[in-house]
């Protein structure tokens, strides 16, 4: 308990309390919070339930409903909090005006997350308690991961959950707390015999309990505190060692509950049994409709068998109690009670479909079960809760009572939900289980397997496994050529495999030949979408003409969903090619179509690839935070967030954060390059070569360059090597491999000739400049770098333009051209404006070597707490844990100069230790 209290009073804090049902998680949390000095701290409670409807972020929203009295005036609140008006009508009057809705559902979701965090910050200090996190929906888990990843300064989050054999963390496998966040995991185990004796003595106010009684109590209760308490409450006394046996006290809670139920009137028993059938907390009217009456409900409450919830509903104190009562109800009576529950729930204005399916199944009404279950899954999918839709279908498929004729349609529904959603880990397991069963016809099996292959290739990023499933599915779809066409078209996209381009083009031709005879507009759109994507990915001059034939205005949702996917691919490909204006148009249209058609996957891809376009086009202001925020939402689909990791790695490289850059480049695809997204892998390899060169590890740079070039050569799509070719040529040339460097330039020039890829052509000029400089042809180098700088400026790609400008300045310096000084000065300023501090420092070092000073902007002299630009750069690296020697290497300074800057930073910030330095805002 002390551990929990200590954590809560040191916010920001995250506390996870784990243990089996009845172990005392809630009791521990409540007792600990009772010991926390209250002060101005508010405690907010939310509960997750085993049967849930698709209400987004329900447990957290439930906890926030009572904060109205603590809110400042609406004018003092963050405007983003206005988005919560629809979620929190109880306090809507105290919130800012509702902002205009966003077209992008993922952006809207992220805005809601930000608003919740802002609300908790506004009412802080606060403790947010979420009970039974094992029953949380994916949206609630994502929101909690967002809150606990970067909690407000005054927030402590306490979550309880049951592991039930699962190995994963309740906050997800990717959860990592921030260094300034207190994190505590409390694991509760059953009590041993000694602890059971202490608990029994306290509960019974006895100090002389016989050891035989204590041992027997421990044996019967398995040491679960709640069961111990319930058993002891049913004892008349404990005067002898055989008291448990004499009283007939049962081993488990159901028997203890039976004893307590025996003292209730029939009316109270009816109310309790009705509540057990309903399972979830319910109001008086619903309990009465299922089998209770108001008088009986009041008696059950007074007896402590049922408890009143804060929102005016009633329920059991613990699910074990509910289950004990439920199991004691005779079967025919249970069935009739569920039947009454169905009738009562169907009469509601907004019937809870998930609960209806649950009760219809247990009532034995198969038709109603299938009707409500299917409707619940479709409703959840429509609301964007694909995880719940899959959960509902899964529960139906796993039910032995499901008629065989209905298994196949549900399996197909499951696979289709999977192909349009984002979550994949659970889905892949379910689909593989379905395919192992022998109830699908050959054609349906092929379609289910095809959808599994798509999920593996796209959402999961496991292209080798996905391709194997698709190829197997194609054999099973021999009698369904239209679906086979979709499979071949999926294989035709070249960016997710090691197969050469010619193989993908062959697969594309197969798909088109099959679709010609099919009267299926959605299939035709899917194949056309992949043809347009393929042409754009390789920089074909025909790409825009093919894209113009996409049926963007078709009235059918399924058709426009395929166009949304195409525009997502076109945006990504155009960004890679340097066609940024066209990419922006594809993104705008793709987002509109994704929202209209409920296509989550394309919408997410547009978000992540837009981050890469911002990086390339120089929109770096706030980019690191935008990328990190988007990455926070990628916990279920980390392998399709490679654009985000690439950008974070590139930003880290530009600022001299070398360990971070290495880590992000690995995550972007270098951890398994043959199984990742090829264009991003090539760019990550280019970044890694640059990183090795910056660190002075020439051998590692050459090795990485050779591996990366071999991958591009095998694939045969050279336009993807634009970020790689110049650093690769530089590494080869610096190591004395001038002939291979020249051969690479020639091969690259041939590979991009005649293609619509302005970024690739600019990279060719830069690579030629790097080769000419290495060969001491400095006049040629000046010309090539100047052409590259101009080409990159037009695109626009300002960072690449500045790198080419720096190359031009170095070539001029080698010629003795006095314009080198102006070149280095201008490039240092450009790098600094972007935020590329390492590159700017490299140019300043060149100016110092020439003998030219380069003054840096300084803070106002009247305020010594303001850091100069150089001091801010030093402070950032100190906050990252870098040594003075490492800082000197990054900023091209002497160690002694860095020591002086560090001392000044500590003095201005008013701290005594380097460990207290926070990154400058």
Automatic annotation (TrEMBL):
Entry keywords, A to Z: ATP-binding, DNA-binding, Nucleotide-binding
Molecular functions (GO terms): adenylate cyclase activity; ATP binding; DNA binding
GO BP term (any one): regulation of DNA-templated transcription
Entry-linked InterPro entries: AAA_16, P-loop_NTPase, Sig_transdc_resp-reg_C-effctor, TPR-like_helical_dom_sf, Tscrpt_reg_LuxR_C, WH-like_DNA-bd_sf
CDD domains: LuxR_C_like
SUPFAM superfamilies cross-referenced by the UniProt entry: C-terminal effector domain of the bipartite response regulators (SSF46894), P-loop containing nucleoside triphosphate hydrolases (SSF52540)
Keyword Lipid metabolism included in the entry's annotation: no
GO cellular component terms listed in the entry, alphabetical order: cytoplasm
One Pfam family cited in the UniProt record for this chain: GerE
Domain HTH luxR-type span(s) in chain numbering: 860-921
Domain of life: Bacteria
PANTHER family documented for this protein: TESTICULAR SOLUBLE ADENYLYL CYCLASE, TRANSCRIPTIONAL ACTIVATOR DOMAIN
Protein name: DNA-binding CsgD family transcriptional regulator/tetratricopeptide (TPR) repeat protein
Species whose genome carries this gene: Sphaerisporangium rubeum
């Amino acid at each position: 308990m002390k551990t929990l209290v200590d954590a809560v009073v040191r916010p920001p804090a995250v506390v996870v309390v784990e243990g089996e049902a009845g172990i005392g998680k809630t009791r521990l949390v409540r007792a600990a919070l009772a010991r926390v000095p209250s002060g101005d701290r508010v405690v907010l409670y939310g509960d997750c339930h085993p049967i849930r409807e698709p209400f987004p972020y329900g447990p957290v929203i439930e906890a926030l409903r009572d904060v109205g009295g603590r809110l400042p005036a609406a004018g003092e609140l963050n405007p983003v909090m206005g988005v919560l008006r629809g979620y929190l009508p109880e306090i809507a009057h105290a919130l800012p005006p509702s902002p205009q809705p966003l077209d992008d559902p993922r952006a809207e979701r992220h805005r809601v997350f930000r608003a919740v965090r802002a609300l908790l910050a506004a009412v802080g200090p606060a403790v947010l308690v979420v009970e039974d996190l094992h029953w949380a929906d994916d949206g609630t888990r994502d929101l909690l991961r967002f809150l606990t990843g970067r909690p407000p300064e005054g927030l402590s989050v306490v979550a309880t959950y049951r592991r039930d054999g699962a190995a994963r963390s309740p906050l997800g496998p990717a959860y990592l707390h921030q260094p300034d966040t207190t994190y505590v995991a409390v694991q509760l185990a059953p009590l041993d015999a000694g602890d059971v004796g202490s608990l029994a003595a306290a509960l019974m106010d006895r100090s002389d309990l016989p050891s035989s009684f204590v041992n027997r109590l421990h044996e019967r209760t398995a040491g679960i505190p709640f069961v111990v308490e319930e058993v002891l409450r049913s004892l008349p006394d404990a005067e002898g060692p055989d008291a448990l046996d004499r009283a007939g006290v049962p081993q488990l809670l159901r028997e203890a509950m039976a004893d307590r139920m025996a003292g209730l009137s029939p009316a109270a028993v009816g109310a309790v049994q009705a509540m057990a059938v309903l399972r979830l907390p319910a109001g008086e009217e619903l309990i009465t409709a299922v089998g209770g009456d108001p008088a009986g409900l009041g008696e059950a409450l007074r007896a402590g068998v049922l408890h009143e919830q804060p929102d005016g509903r009633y329920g059991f104190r613990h699910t074990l109690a509910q289950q004990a009562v439920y199991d004691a109800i005779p079967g025919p009576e249970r069935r009739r009670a569920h039947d009454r529950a169905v009738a009562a729930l169907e009469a509601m204005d907004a019937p809870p479909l998930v609960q209806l399916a649950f009760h219809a199944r247990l009532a034995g009404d198969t038709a109603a079960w299938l009707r409500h279950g299917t409707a619940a899954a479709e409703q959840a999918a429509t609301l964007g809760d694909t995880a719940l839709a899959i959960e509902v279908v899964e529960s139906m498929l796993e039910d032995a009572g499901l008629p065989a004729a209905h298994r196949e349609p549900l399996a197909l529904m499951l696979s289709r939900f999977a192909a349009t959603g984002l979550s994949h880990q659970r889905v892949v397991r379910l689909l593989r289980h379905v395919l192992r069963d022998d109830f699908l016809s050959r054609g349906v099996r092929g379609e289910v397997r095809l959808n599994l292959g798509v999920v593996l290739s796209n959402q999961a990023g496991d292209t080798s496994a996905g391709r194997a499933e698709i190829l197997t599915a194609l054999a099973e779809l021999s009698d369904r050529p239209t679906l086979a066409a979709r499979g071949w078209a999926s294989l035709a996209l070249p960016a997710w495999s090691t197969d050469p381009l010619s193989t993908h083009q062959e697969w594309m031709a197969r798909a088109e030949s099959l679709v010609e005879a099919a009267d299926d507009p959605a299939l035709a759109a899917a194949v056309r979408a992949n043809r347009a994507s393929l042409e754009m990915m390789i920089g074909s001059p025909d790409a825009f003409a093919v894209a113009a034939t996409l049926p963007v205005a078709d009235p059918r949702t399924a058709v426009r969903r395929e166009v949304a996917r195409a525009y997502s691919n076109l945006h990504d490909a155009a960004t890679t090619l340097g066609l940024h204006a066209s990419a922006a148009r594809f993104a705008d249209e793709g987002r509109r179509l994704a929202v209209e058609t409920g296509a989550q996957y394309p919408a997410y891809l547009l978000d992540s690839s837009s981050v890469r376009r911002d990086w390339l086009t120089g929109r770096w202001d706030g980019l690191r935070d935008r990328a990190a925020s988007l990455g926070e939402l990628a916990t279920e689909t980390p392998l399709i967030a490679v654009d985000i990791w690439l950008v974070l790695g590139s930003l880290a490289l530009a600022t001299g954060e070398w360990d971070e850059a290495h880590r992000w480049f690995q995550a972007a695809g270098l951890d398994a390059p043959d199984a990742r997204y090829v264009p991003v892998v090539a760019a990550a390899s280019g970044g890694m070569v640059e990183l090795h060169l910056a660190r002075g590890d020439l051998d590692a740079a050459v090795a990485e360059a050779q591996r990366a070039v071999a991958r591009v050569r095998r694939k045969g799509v050279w336009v993807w090597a634009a970020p790689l070719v110049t650093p690769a040529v530089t590494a080869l040339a610096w190591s004395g491999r001038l002939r291979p460097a020249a051969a690479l330039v020639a091969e690259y020039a041939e590979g991009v000739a005649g293609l619509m890829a302005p970024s690739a052509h600019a990279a060719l000029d830069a690579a030629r400049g790097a080769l000419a400089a290495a060969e001491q042809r400095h006049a040629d180098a000046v010309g090539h770098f100047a052409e590259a700088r101009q080409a990159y400026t037009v695109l626009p790609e300002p960072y690449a333009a500045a790198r080419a400008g720096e190359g031009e300045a170095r070539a001029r310096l080698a010629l003795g051209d006095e314009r080198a000084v102006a070149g280095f000065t201008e490039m240092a300023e450009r790098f600094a404006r972007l935020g590329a501090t390492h590159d700017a420092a490299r140019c300043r070092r060149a100016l110092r070597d020439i003998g030219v000073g380069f003054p840096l902007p300084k803070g106002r002299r009247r305020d010594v707490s303001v850091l100069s630009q150089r001091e801010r750069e030093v402070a950032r690296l100190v906050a990252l844990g870098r040594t003075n020697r490492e800082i000197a290497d990054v900023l091209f300074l002497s160690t002694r100069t860095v020591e002086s800057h560090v001392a000044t930073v500590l003095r201005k910030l008013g701290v005594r230790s380097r460990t207290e330095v926070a990154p400058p805002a």
